[in-house]
Write a structure and sequence with these properties.
mainly alpha, 0% strand, 495 residues
Length: 495
């Protein structure tokens, strides 16, 4: 199930990445000013952060405890209705809090971020619909359908954003209307997901509180509380850098950071997809106390994701000069943002889905502690490094903090369960990656940067993938390659 949905989810995710590359990597730098790019990114950052707090941890509780409610005949005891009630309470807390913070934004924004003050209230509907989307996406995931949310978020939403940007480029709409339609594009996937859940016959809103005994109620409160800390800290971690860049340096610097940061995060797409469905299977495995399955998923996800992650990283950094042929010179200050962000994300991908293992275990509280430490590390390192190094300091802060955070998680799982995913194959993978990267440096720069990307990427891929396959670095990847090759041969014979 993990393989099937991860593969289909990754395909849709990379369609979204391609669309994101067209919008963020190509069109944003050519159509918008760096300040306007910063505005579009900061709207998402604030809405995401506040929406996660508004969830009050119910999404974490859903992943961990939904197996106790799962019963289609009894309409899952109206769990969706209960989750919506919790979210409504969260919105009643969060939205007034956000509005009360307006003087803080106004005071700072007069100098470097005045544009954000103009669109301050646009964050409110984004908070509401981001919250609803996350809730319904999680509900669909525990029903073993992780792909729907990916399609709507990564493909449908990005197509709509692309259309809005093209309309602005053709002078069909003003920038003000562009922002309005951009917000509409961001909230539209929620309506698609509502329709999908209703059509699937799983839209059960009447809560059955009688199904919750004293023990389960205590678990729900406990898991939700720590889930709230976890998800809020997690979203803080994902958005604090761009928020602090905007606060220290203004929307223009945030725009530069946004575009260059995008390239460094491309390697995380397979991890996000695998994590979504993997967390549901791991939750069921913990319920059955099936440690062997959990350890097997941990090891396989780690090496398979690392193969993809290293290939993407050396492919991106090997084409770094070409990347800045695509985006404008205005973004050159962010060159090492790509390097440090990519390295930081390699730490994440090398440890596979270990956060899902911790959060679904009896030690789920610890992920909250670790994320809190991570958030503090990020804030402190950003405070120290942004004034000294600018946006590169923000990326370096992320690299340092992620290394410490991942090392803590690694040690924790090893100490508690003797889980650890690494073996000699990782050393081989590093050697193969370095060989492929340095080999690409021997290729002379071609005059046409598109042709150079094709040639350089092909050389990197061949030098990387051939030894990965024959040295059997990842059994899962080898099996998929063999299956694909067999299907290809069959299709040729049938023709």
């Amino acid at each position: 199930m993990i393989q099937k949905q991860s593969i289909s989810g990754t395909i849709y995710s990379y369609i979204g990445v391609a669309l994101g590359f067209i919008t963020v990597g190509i069109l944003y730098p050519r159509i918008f000013s760096t300040e306007e790019v910063g505005l579009l990114r900061i709207l998402v950052s604030y809405s995401t952060l506040f929406a996660q707090f508004a969830s009050l941890g119910i999404n974490t509780a859903t992943i961990k405890l939904f197996p106790f409610f799962r019963n289609n005949e009894k309409k899952h005891h109206g769990y969706l209705g209960m989750a919506l009630i919790v979210s409504l309470v969260g919105l009643m807390i969060v939205i007034p809090t956000y509005l009360m913070l307006r003087p803080y934004f106004l005071e700072h924004g007069q100098e470097k971020s005045a544009l954000f003050n103009t669109y301050f209230y646009y964050v409110v509907p984004l908070i509401i619909f981001t919250l609803l989307f996350n809730l319904l996406d999680t509900y669909y995931r525990v029903l073993y359908n992780a792909v729907k949310g990916i399609v709507y978020k990564e493909v449908v939403q990005r197509v709509m954003i692309l259309l809005v940007i093209v309309a602005f480029f053709l002078n069909l709409i003003s920038f003000h209307l562009t922002v309005i339609l951009y917000v509409v594009a961001l909230i539209t996937p929620t309506f698609f997901l509502i329709y999908s859940v209703m059509r699937s016959g799983q839209f059960f809103l009447k809560p059955d509180f009688s199904s919750i005994d004293k023990t389960l109620r205590k678990q729900l409160i406990d898991v939700s509380f720590f889930g709230m800390v976890t998800t809020f800290s997690g979203m803080l971690v994902l958005n604090i850098d761009v928020i602090m860049v905007e606060r220290f340096m203004g929307l223009s610097s945030a725009g530069i950071y946004t575009v260059t940061f995008f390239f460094g995060t491309l390697i995380l797409v397979p991890l996000r997809t695998m994590g979504k469905i993997g967390s549901v299977v791991i939750s069921d495995a913990w319920k059955a106390n099936d440690l062997e399955t959990i350890n097997n998923i941990y090891k396989k996800s780690s090496i398979s994701l690392s193969v993809l992650g290293f290939l993407l990283f050396i492919g991106i950094w090997g084409n770094i000069d070409n990347i800045f042929m695509i985006i404008k010179d205005d973004y050159l200050p962010g060159k090492f943002v790509i390097l440090f962000t990519g390295l930081a994300n390699l730490f994440d991908i090398a440890l596979g889905i270990n956060p899902q293992i911790i959060v679904n275990s009896k030690y789920y509280r610890y992920i909250s502690y670790f994320l809190f430490i991570f958030a503090i590390l990020l804030i402190v390192t950003n405070l120290l490094l942004i004034p000294a190094l600018g946006i590169v300091g923000a990326a370096l802060a992320s690299l340092i903090s992620k290394f410490i955070f991942n090392f803590i998680k690694f040690l924790f799982l090893y100490k508690k369960f003797r889980f650890q995913p690494f073996n000699y194959k990782f050393i081989l993978l590093i050697i193969i990656s370095l060989t492929a990267y340095f080999s690409s440096l021997l290729i002379p720069q071609l005059s046409n940067y598109i042709l150079d990307i094709l040639v350089r990427s092909t050389v990197i891929s061949i030098i990387f993938l051939v030894p990965v396959y024959f040295l059997k670095i990842s059994d899962d990847i080898n099996r998929k390659i063999n299956e694909s090759f067999s299907l290809f041969l069959k299709s040729i014979k049938s023709n």
